Amino acid sequence: MKNYFFTFLFVAVAGIFSVNAQVTGKWKTIDDKTGDAKSIVEIYEQNGKIYGKVVEILNPARKNSKCDKCDGADKGKPIEGLIIIKGLKKDGDKYTDGDILDPQKGKLYSCTIKLDGKDKLDVRGYMGISMLGRTQVWHRVK
User: Fold this and answer.
1) Is residue 1 part of a domain?
2) CA distance 116 to 23
3) DUF2147 domain location, by residue (predicted)?
């Protein structure tokens, strides 16, 4: 009987920790127009908030691209290594109240992310209200 209890307890605790960690990791971004894979973004937690950094650009021709249209401190920085998701906070089963940068347009949008299963991430960028935006589906890199 004790073995069953400890097994159940272990599975329950492992499940809690895996749910909390699922949004973190590496994700492949997909171009809306072409359907081609664009980059790998690493999502991580820092000081209780979620951030995402471009760790690899997949198109060799764009490997050395810079954020020329960006404002402020990001202007002219290489896109590879750029933090594009900033300051998301957990809100139930999604993460909200942060921003996402589109380095090709140099625009900053409000952002919400939510897991769709364990290997898909819905990333929504919008201006003003969430209805006025678009959602991309990113795929977990294994």
Assistant:
1) no
2) 10
3) 25-140
